[in-house]
């Protein structure tokens, strides 16, 4: 599978604002399965926007995005269930539900993980004692780890991550990045990660400056 962006431009940004971008306004930007990509930019430069465009949750752009996949029904909604998984910067968790319930909302759609597998993720990320806690009671770092676990509880060929380690300490970043690497390898999947600065947690195939 691959994702190709052609002449992408947010409708709410001027040509001047994105004139030096490696992604915006480019004739072709190709993301291929099995590779790892980093998108670097300061705040307000459109990092979240580019992931939202790919995920189909924001369509306020000019240009086109093409998905080359072997999925028979390749509507964007079906792609979200089968090949695109997303760790949002603002988590998109349900505060009135527990940690386990938030994860199961995603997993129940695909039955991708067994209950023991989910608990294994929770133990690895030191959340085993928060399994039945309401998300509203969690710290930002705990919420971020829950959002990452939830994203891993579905099939994917592209994992989109929007500043996914911004609230984690070095120890949790190390553990979390190792788990992500294992999942990318087992799924022969790609990572598209955004960051405010250079992230050397992964061996990136390509770095884009937005």
Short description:
This protein is an alpha/beta fold and 210 residues long.
Description of the structure:
The chain has 210 residues and is α/β, with parallel strands linked by helices. The protein has one domain: P-loop containing nucleotide triphosphate hydrolases (Rossmann fold, 3-Layer(aba) Sandwich), CATH 3.40.50.300. The protein has 6 helices and 8 strands; from the N terminus they run βββαβαβαααβαββ. The protein has helices at residues 47-55, 76-82, 99-110, 115-124, 140-152, 170-187, and strands at 2-10, 29-32, 36-40, 61-68, 84-87, 158-162, 190-195, 206-209. The protein has a 5-stranded parallel beta sheet, sandwiched between helices. Strands 2-1-4 form a 3-stranded antiparallel beta sheet, covered by helices on one side. Helix 6 (170-187) links the parallel strand 6 and strand 7 (190-195). The longest helix has 18 residues, at 170-187. It is globular, with a radius of gyration of 17 Å. The mean pLDDT is 94.
List the helices and strands and how they pair.
Elements: E1 2-10, E2 29-32, E3 36-40, H1 47-55, E4 61-68, H2 76-82, E5 84-87, H3 99-110, H4 115-124, H5 140-152, E6 158-162, H6 170-187, E7 190-195, E8 206-209
Parallel strand pairs: 3-7, 3-8, 5-6, 6-7
Antiparallel strand pairs: 1-2, 1-4
């Amino acid at each position: 599978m691959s994702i190709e962006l052609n002449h992408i431009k947010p409708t709410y940004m001027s040509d001047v604002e994105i004139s030096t971008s490696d992604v915006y306004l480019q004739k072709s930007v190709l993301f291929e399965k099995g590779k790892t990509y980093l998108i670097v930019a300061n705040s307000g430069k459109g990092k979240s926007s580019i992931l939202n465009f790919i995920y189909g949750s924001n369509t306020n752009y000019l240009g086109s995005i093409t998905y080359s996949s072997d999925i028979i029904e390749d509507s964007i909604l079906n792609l979200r269930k089968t090949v695109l998984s997303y760790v949002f910067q603002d988590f998109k968790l349900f505060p009135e539900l527990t940690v386990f319930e938030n994860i199961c909302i995603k997993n129940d759609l695909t039955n991708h993980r067994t209950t023991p597998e989910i608990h294994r993720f929770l133990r690895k990320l030191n959340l085993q004692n928060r399994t039945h806690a309401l998300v509203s009671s969690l710290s930002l770092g705990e919420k971020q780890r829950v959002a990452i676990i939830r994203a891993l509880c579905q099939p994917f060929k592209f994992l989109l991550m929007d500043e996914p380690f911004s609230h984690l300490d070095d120890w949790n970043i190390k553990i979390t990045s190792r788990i992500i690497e294992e999942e990318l390898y087992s799924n022969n999947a790609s990572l598209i990660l955004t960051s405010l600065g250079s992230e050397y947690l992964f061996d990136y195939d390509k770095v884009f400056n937005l």
